[in-house]
Amino acid sequence: MSAETDSVQDSLSPDDLRALRLRLRRARAALSDAQLDHHSAAICGHLLRWFERWQPHCVGAYRGLRGEVDLTPLTVALARRGTRIALPVMDDKRPGHMHFHTWAPDEPLCHNGFGIAEPCPDAPRIWRREMQVVLMPLVAFDTAGNRMGMGAGYYDRYFARRRFGIHRPKLIGVAHSLQGVPALPTQPWDVPLDGVVTEQGWHALPDRARHNTLD
């Protein structure tokens, strides 16, 4: 952990974190439809060019809430190339937990209790080890690859490091550039990102230089 992160860890109270999360969510929600469309198109383009070089067999993605980057054009394009697409499904029997299930462009989506579109219950489940890349929404990211989510911990639980050996997928944060901050406090259960892509392009993570090329 860097000295800068230590300083943030010491200086931000729970109220400060809630305020930061609220401020960034409001900034994200304030983007116009035109800005959202522009950012989403640029980010999908960056990712599609990367996938053309890397060609993973299975990619985890998401269906966004208002203000989040829309990855629908990317997932449709990847699916048409034969890439399996997996989307998160909240576990209604285990609050705070989720799984990934397959989705294809010609298949319907259902809505969970939060109004989020997800694969319907009969969609086949995808296991963690089957995904080479997972594209993750976020509220904030920092220059070390730390991620702040909505606060419920779904992704941190699902990708807890102790559950993985060599098969952990690459975790790529998808965000608007305005969601970047200098440093975020971390907790032992937080799962760091391997890369971040915004409308401006890929953001290098100097603290984990081996992932900067995302080869």
Notable features of this structure?
alpha/beta; 8-stranded mixed sheet; 215 residues; ATP binding; ATP-binding; 3-stranded mixed sheet; 5-formyltetrahydrofolate cyclo-ligase; single chain; 28% helix; disordered N terminus; Rossmann fold; globular; disordered C terminus
Describe the structure.
- Pfam families: 5-FTHF_cyc-lig.
- It catalyses: (6S)-5-formyl-5,6,7,8-tetrahydrofolate + ATP = (6R)-5,10-methenyltetrahydrofolate + ADP + phosphate.
- Its cofactor is Mg(2+).
- This protein is an alpha/beta fold and 215 residues long.
- It has a single domain (3-211), classed as NagB/RpiA/CoA transferase-like (Rossmann fold), CATH 3.40.50.
- The chain has five helices and 13 strands.
- The strands form three sheets. The protein has an eight-stranded mixed sheet. The protein has a three-stranded mixed sheet with strand order 9-8-11, with no helix packed on it. A two-stranded antiparallel sheet has the order 4-5.
- A hairpin with a 4-residue loop joins strand 8 (140-142) and strand 9.
- The two termini are 25 Å apart.
What is this entry, summarized?
With 215 residues, the chain is α/β, with parallel strands linked by helices. It has 5 helices and 13 strands.
How are the elements arranged and paired?
Blueprint: H1 3-11, H2 14-29, H3 33-54, E1 58-60, H4 72-80, E2 84-90, E3 98-103, E4 109-111, E5 117-119, E6 125-126, E7 133-136, E8 140-142, E9 147-148, H5 154-158, E10 170-174, E11 180-181, E12 195-198, E13 201-203
Parallel strand pairs: 1-2, 1-7, 7-10, 8-11, 10-12
Antiparallel strand pairs: 2-3, 3-6, 4-5, 8-9, 12-13
Helix pairs in contact: 3-4
Organism: Thioalkalivibrio versutus
EC number: 6.3.3.2
Binding site for ATP: 147-155
